[in-house]
Specification:
Oligomer: single chain
Largest sheet: 5 strands, antiparallel
Number of domains: 2
Radius of gyration: 21 Å
CATH class of the largest domain: Mainly Beta
Number of strands: 10
Strand order of the largest sheet: 1-4-9-6-7
Distance between the termini: 39 Å
Strand content: 15-25%
CATH architecture of the largest domain: Sandwich
Length: 298
């Protein structure tokens, strides 16, 4: 019923996923899944029509590195990759960047839409402006215990299993609401929404060689240019110029993984006037030259 979009920057690093058990109802799709990555890499995961919960489950001694080697970040937040907790949460309509090593683990993956689950249908579930790094490491004892019980129910369904699962998931959803939506950011808060940030990021990263003007960006969001500049700084802590520079470097990193593309070509494709200015900007942001970055990722 529900799905997430999973896309590796390098297809050879794509993971393998085996579903061991599954429980599906109108408002949720929960799986016990075995995941295996034989190569390190970076992927983009998009939670579209549903929220996503992941709980890493205890397993016997692993053949590969533990899940704690893996890191992630929300694309709409300007922050470094951070270690992922045993339990994490991705709201619907969000994009998540996942950096993994050679690893193998078993996890419960829960896709759900609280807006159509009976007891929760009358509650507002607007996640815009509420993204938080703490979603990548849920530390609430109640949440962890409830997720563990969910995993047990999916692995070994009992009497009235779907009803029991919906009750557990209702409690989980309400606790997530209390943590992340109780002080929900409104349109008048002086900050941009995740959708607005995503629009800006796509404008910069789709064609970084064609830098958009402030007016073009403001027109895309249907707001005055000055207000855009102020709200962007309030939301990310960065200026639009700094954000654009980071977007160019992220694009350059992706292109550098392909050894067939000359560094000179990459400099022009990412909007730099010449290779020298590209190398200087890349070294300042990453701490090494483009050549060194390419060698390290061969």
């Amino acid at each position: 019923m529900y799905s997430v979009h999973y896309d590796e920057y390098d297809p050879s690093a794509a993971g393998e996923f085996l579903t061991e058990s599954r429980l599906v109802n109108e408002g949720f799709d929960i799986r016990i899944e075995h995941a295996h990555w034989s190569n390190s890499g970076t992927a983009v995961i998009q939670a579209k029509s549903s929220c996503l919960l992941r709980l890493v489950l205890p397993t016997p001694a692993r053949r590969w590195s533990p899940f704690s080697d893996n890191k992630g970040r929300f694309s709409d937040l300007s922050c470094e990759f951070q270690p992922l907790g045993q339990a994490l949460f991705l709201p619907r309509d969000t994009e998540f960047q996942f950096c993994h090593g050679v690893s193998e683990y078993k996890a419960m993956i829960c896709l759900f839409d609280p807006g159509i689950m009976g007891p929760l249908a009358g509650i507002q579930w607007q996640w815009d402006g509420c993204l938080s790094d703490s979603m990548l490491n849920l530390e609430s004892p109640y949440l962890r215990t409830s997720l563990q019980r969910l995993a047990q129910e999916v692995a070994a369904p009992g009497f009235a299993s779907e009803l029991h699962t919906e009750c557990l998931l209702t409690g989980v959803a309400l606790d997530l609401h209390r943590q992340f939506l109780s002080s929900q950011v409104t349109a008048d808060s002086g900050k941009l929404s995740p959708r607005q940030l995503r629009t800006l990021r796509e404008m910069f990263e789709t064609e970084p060689e064609h830098s958009s003007s402030l007016k073009q960006l403001a027109d895309a969001l249907d707001m005055p240019a000055r207000r855009l500049s102020e709200q962007f700084k309030n939301t990310t802590g960065l200026t639009l110029r700094q954000f654009a520079a980071q977007a160019r470097i992220r694009r350059a990193k992706s292109l550098l993984l392909d050894s067939k593309v000359l560094i000179k070509q990459i400099s022009y494709q990412t909007g730099f006037l010449n290779p020298a200015s590209f190398t200087a900007a890349f070294r300042k942001e990453v701490g090494m030259t483009p050549e060194a970055f390419r060698q390290m990722h061969r």
